[in-house]
Amino acid sequence: MKSSLLVVGSVAFDSIETRAGKRDEILGGAATFISLAASHFAAVNLVAVVGEGDFPDEHVRLLTDHGVDVTGLERVPGRTFRWAGVYAEDFSTRETLDTQLGVFEAFDPKIPEAYAGARFLMLGNINPGLQLKVLDAMAPECFVATDTMNLWIDIARAELDQVIARTNLLVINDEESLMLTGERQVAVAAEQILARGPSAVVIKRGEHGAFLFTAEDTFFAPAFPLRDVIDPTGAGDSFAGGLMGYLAGQGSTATEDIKRGMLYGTAIASNTCEDFGVDRIKAIDRAGIDERLGALRSLVTVS
Amino acid sequence: MKSSLLVVGSVAFDSIETRAGKRDEILGGAATFISLAASHFAAVNLVAVVGEGDFPDEHVRLLTDHGVDVTGLERVPGRTFRWAGVYAEDFSTRETLDTQLGVFEAFDPKIPEAYAGARFLMLGNINPGLQLKVLDAMAPECFVATDTMNLWIDIARAELDQVIARTNLLVINDEESLMLTGERQVAVAAEQILARGPSAVVIKRGEHGAFLFTAEDTFFAPAFPLRDVIDPTGAGDSFAGGLMGYLAGQGSTATEDIKRGMLYGTAIASNTCEDFGVDRIKAIDRAGIDERLGALRSLVTVS
């Protein structure tokens, strides 16, 4: 049964410099990418916070035009979260130039009553204490996907461990999986994570694809070999959003659907990289996504 | 029709230190790994050089026990090529501690008459001038796979370009493909390389798998998610040897067979990494290779 997806995370202004150019204060934030990616497959309910004075209506319209319900998008006094960064020529690293948390510093996610029964939740990368608060508001049968980052592994480990114990699908990158477990190989790290609660863990490797590990199964979704990269910001969140949007749209948490969802997530994430910010994924349609999905499937096919 | 594979390259003693331990003067060299990997699928003819005084009979027996014809293994006065290196904890880099070329410095590959009609040739990473000399000795219908390295791209570009023009299947790593073309994305680098002569280019990405590009097709062979890595030395050569051995064994240069060969090459290369030097691949059998091939195929399968 088709469900909607609840997304909790950051909405931000990003200032980005890559080998392809420079953009100032464009729409970004994990929850933005997750929501737009997921919107191709399911209705999305967004819980986030922005400044009441500086967040343009056109950004809100972009979201609602994609079927994103913004009842949970709080507008409060203060400035919207701002991030600025510059990528290395080959995109292997990026340097943060500036972070201004603004209203995100006091983000206190409130789940509208209509959302509390959601069957699918994507917890974007926010303070694990806030992730716990969201989990407390949800019905126990909710399928929870969680992202996090090295910062929280460092400074909020106890709360993060609680979040992971209540997570069904952990979506993290390879370095985070090693850091979280103290292991040296992702296959072993995944095994450890599965022992802590999640029934599935997806380990993202950026331009090198993503692994899925469950107790019974290992799957690999290859990345698409792009001819050019403009801006990879939000690619990981687009991947997770596509994956969870697909599951919500199917109303399924079956392993085979997680695999298919990873391919859809990859198809969208590769589009994200082909322009700055959300410029590409705000414009793609389902036919374009399906075309890239076909290319991803044929990429690993031997007759 | 089943063919044999002619292999030209280095045979060496490697001294290796990794997080898993240390080994001194163990059997190594590109042609060794290529030959042992290929021997699972085809008869192999080896052209290489070692010192007449320091190369133990047991190493020669190891090769002949695997069906490798050593008529072309010259034993000359002097010392066998020695290399020593240490790998970073996470294997992302390695440092060369010592290189003693010994008899390899004056290597002058002589192709025994019985080998000159070979239909499949794997040119290991040696000086492009020597690669050209080997090519001159071969029949024109020979299917030639070539490896090279950044050193030759730097200092012997003109000769390397001639080798590439006469190569059917170029097998290089991702950094080399970018260096060779001045491009920033492997998909574009591959297109440039295909315009220079080869009908196929395989771009190796180590633990991240390998791409195949032809004029009509793009294929990706995932790497196997190993639970532990002991020593990756020779993994790339094992991959190329498994690939070319498979093609020779099939007597085929069809794209679909190159794809299958890449999966066999990956299966063997992953075994190479699970012990020092040739310790693992000298012991595996075809059933073990087929088992890992099955795991690689299921890794990318969605029902």
Question: Could you characterize what this model shows?
Answer:
The structure is a homodimer of 303-residue chains. Chain A has 303 residues and is α/β, with parallel strands linked by helices. Helices cover 36% and strands 25% of the residues of chain A. The first copy, chain A, is built from ten helices and 13 strands. Chain A has a nine-stranded mixed beta sheet with strand order 5-4-1-8-9-10-11-12-13, with helices on both faces. In chain A, a hairpin with a 5-residue loop joins β11 (200-204) and β12. Chain A is globular, with a radius of gyration of 18 Å. The A-B interface holds A 19, 89-90, 184-188, 205, 208-209, 211, 218-222, 225-229, 256, 259-260, 263, 297, 299-303 and B 19, 89-90, 184-188, 205, 208-209, 211, 218-222, 225-229, 256, 259-260, 263, 297, 299-303.
Topology record:
Two copies of one chain form a homodimer.
Chain A: E1 5-8, E2 12-18, E3 21-28, H1 30-38, E4 44-51, H2 57-65, E5 68-76, E6 81-87, E7 94-100, E8 120-123, H3 128-137, E9 143-146, H4 150-155, H5 157-165, E10 169-173, H6 174-181, H7 186-194, E11 200-204, E12 210-214, E13 218-221, H8 235-250, H9 255-272, H10 286-299
Parallel strand pairs in A: 1-4, 1-8, 2-6, 4-5, 8-9, 9-10, 10-11
Antiparallel strand pairs in A: 2-3, 6-7, 11-12, 12-13
Helix pairs in contact in A: 1-8, 3-5, 6-7, 8-9, 9-10
